[in-house]
Amino acid sequence: MGIIYEDNELIIKGLFSKKKIAYKDIKSIEIKKEGIVFTTREGDEITSKDRFFDDKDNLFGAIRKFNIAYRNQNELEVVSETYTREELDDKFQKAKDLAYAVSSQDVKKKLGEKYDIELDIKEVEEYVTMYLSLTEDGEVLKTMGAFDDITLAYLVEWDSSLNCAKYGITVELTDEEKMREAVQYSLQYLYEEF
Fold first, then answer.
1. 84 alpha carbon, distance to own chain's centre
2. What is the model's pTM?
């Protein structure tokens, strides 16, 4: 069985069958050890042994757009606490400030004063990620774009009763030393490519 996430629907392919389900008709999605359970608004359950490997941007966009209840039970079993995006904004800003302090000074020292780092925090699929881009004279180098990224948080639940996401967080967000190590690793990649 395989799953394809289209713009307006998902397609579940079996050996001899294919089932299409419009996102608007999905009530909930739950990831368990056994697989992914899709429950329709009519109460039908479809379990797929497939894992999320394909482009999931359409699916996570639909979860938000159609307020589909989502639970990643596997992740919820290992996180100690979940956070809303608003609860994480201060943590994201502190991580961004630390990453900039570490990276900007290093880049200027190694590449010259006209170079710097730009950091952007974006939600992509189920992740909140900090993207690192090299700038020259204040402009992002288009030839490189974002040269690396550091994941800060990941969606573990969409609470449809509150219409909001709940995230687990990575160690880089909670441990300054781990953030420093991640930034240094990213910079080494930059210097090899530059």
1. 14
2. 0.89
Q: Are the CB atoms for 108 and 154 separated by under 8 Å?
A: no
The backbone torsions φ and ψ at residue 51, rounded to the nearest 5 degrees and listed phi first, read -110, 165
Residues in the chain: 194
| Rounded-to-5 percentages of helix, strand, coil across the chain | 35, 40, 25
C-alpha–C-alpha distance, residues 144 and 136, integer Å: 11
Q: How far is CA 15 from CA 18, 105, 106, 134, in A?
A: 8, 56, 54, 47
Spatial neighbors of 9 by CB under 8 A, at least 6 apart, are 20, 21, 22, 23
C-alpha span between 134 and 125 (Å, rounded): 24
User: pLDDT by residue for the chain (194 residues), tens digit each?
Assistant: 678 888 999 998 878 888 899 999 999 999 998 888 999 999 999 888 866 656 678 889 999 999 999 999 999 999 999 999 999 999 999 999 999 999 999 999 999 999 999 999 999 889 999 999 999 999 999 888 899 999 999 999 999 999 999 999 999 999 999 999 999 999 999 999 88
